Amino acid sequence: MYVKNYMSTDLVTITPDTTVIKALDLMRQHDIHRLPVVVKGQLVGLLTESVIAKNSPSTATSLSVHELNYLLNKTTAADIMIRRVITTSPDALLEQAASEMRNMDVGVLVVMDHAQLVGIITDKDIFEAFIDINGYYTPGTRFVVEVEDDKIGILEDLGETTAKHNWSITQMNVYHLDDKTNVVVHVDTQDSEEVARVFQEKGYKVSGVFVKPE
């Protein structure tokens, strides 16, 4: 899957002269935590809640509420925004985006199509994609079979067996662990006991069966 399949495109943006207090109001209003900063449609920075918190007086300050609000009204996005924004492409693979976030220790990537701002993707979007791709929301039965790494034709046999019982495979994932390989198969039936029985009788080690009701 690609970044463009899970990125947010309904963006709320600000300009460099937007005050911090206005930016915070926009974040609360739209329930978001980051605001791209643009000038004439061109990305020039990123303002986040964490950046604002880092540049705000601590709770131990002796300033009054009015003095704090005055400072926030005088401080603009240009004063504190992130200028070296980490970006990605809408055609980048999700795992590329996830790896970039981990390596750069950030929770968001701004999505650029050449020089055009087209979206943002956050760590929350990556989590949602992981859940979706693994079929968690899809009704049916998900089962795990342990297989030998050097056994050829496993996926073909799993497919033929499900087809023989008139089940459709909606998702399939292969996980290579240290000492074994797990194949997680999601089929469109609620009869989990029958699924387990069929594959166990074929000699598969079924290590887990999970049902998602309709």
TrEMBL record:
Pfam families: CBS. PANTHER family: CBS DOMAIN-CONTAINING PROTEIN (PTHR43080:SF2), CBS DOMAIN-CONTAINING PROTEIN CBSX3, MITOCHONDRIAL (PTHR43080). It comes from Abiotrophia defectiva ATCC 49176. Coiled coil: none annotated. Residues 7-62, 81-138 form the CBS domain. Keywords: CBS domain. Gene3D superfamilies: CBS-domain (3.10.580.10). This is CBS domain protein. It comes from the Bacteria. Residues 143-214 form the ACT domain.
